[in-house]
Amino acid sequence: DVKVTQSSRYLVKRTGEKVFLECVQDMDHENMFWYRQDPGLGLRLIYFSYDVKMKEKGDIPEGYSVSREKKERFSLILESASTNQTSMYLCASSGASTGEQYFGPGTRLTVT
Amino acid sequence: QKEVEQNSGPLSVPEGAIASLNCTYSDRGSQSFFWYRQYSGKSPELIMFIYSNGDKEDGRFTAQLNKASQYVSLLIRDSQPSDSATYLCAVNGAAGNKLTFGGGTRVLVKP
Q1: Rounded Cα distance, B100 and A43, in Å
Q2: pLDDT band at B94 (very low <50, low <70, confident <90, very high)
Q3: Cβ–Cβ < 8 Å for A23, A75
Q4: SS3 B15
Q5: Binary contact (B32, A99; C-beta < 8 A)
Q6: How far is B101 from chain A (nearest CA, A)?
Q7: Do B99 and A50 touch (CB under 8 A)?
Q8: Contacts of B104 in chain A (CB under 8 A)
Q9: In this structure, are strands B19-25 and B4-6 parallel, antiparallel, or unpaired?
Q10: DSSP calls for A60-106
């Protein structure tokens, strides 16, 4: 079974802090994705990566950056957290030739 | 116009009945289609995928795809209270492995 893990289930940070969210997959997937999910707005793609050290902007990249130094690990960085970044953050991965994405358990981030 | 559209619901069905969920998409070049189930407070879980026109069955779930009409549907037979969740439709377009998600349909199965 595909396993995608995320570093924290719940996280509380203060405005202005730098926040790191980590995601690890164990299926040797090429593609990794970061989404946020908010009530009424659905799943929105922040960034994705097709390969190590490669990244592409999704629909809402502002205020975020990412890092992919190893194939199995994809990190989302909030350089200076703001209250409007309070959300559920979901990481997903997929293989190069298949479209199905497998999600991690999510991190519920609260910025106060 | 949203690229992937779903009725937000809630779709209320009695236990044992068939739940029918629909999804329409705008990109005619879309190749692959997925259904995810998401319980409240949890992450989406893949339950079905379909690539070709027609029906695909997996247990109590049947996915139906009609590329000419640009819709994909999910049938849940013998609905159980544990099927109460939000169901997300996702579409893989012609460009790469990004998925576009619909807003989800909330399903309530009443005993």
Answers
A1: 9
A2: low
A3: yes
A4: coil
A5: yes
A6: 7
A7: no
A8: 42
A9: antiparallel
A10: --TTEEEEEEETTEEEEEESS--GGG-EEEEEEEE-SS----EE---
Confidence grade of residue B93 (pLDDT, cut at 50, 70, 90): confident
Give the integer Cα–Cα distance in Å for B63 and B107.
16
d(CA B33, CA B35): 7
- Distance of alpha carbon B34 from alpha carbon B93, whole angstroms: 12
In the numeric block, which tokens belong to residue B97? 């492995």
**Among candidate residues B67, B8, B99, B66, the one with its CA nearest the CA of residue A32:** B99
- Residue A58: list chain B partners with CB under 8 A: 98
pLDDT tens string A48-94 = 999 998 999 999 999 999 999 999 999 999 999 999 999 999 999 99
Residue identified by tokens 């997937």 is A29
Please judge whether B44 and A43 are an interchain contact, meaning their C-beta atoms are less than 8 angstroms apart.
yes
Mind listing the pLDDT tens digit for each residue in A22-42? Answer: 999 999 999 999 999 999 889
Strand partners, A5: A24
- Copy the structure tokens of residue B75: 């049938």
Could you tell me which chain A residue has the CA closest to the CA of B40? A39
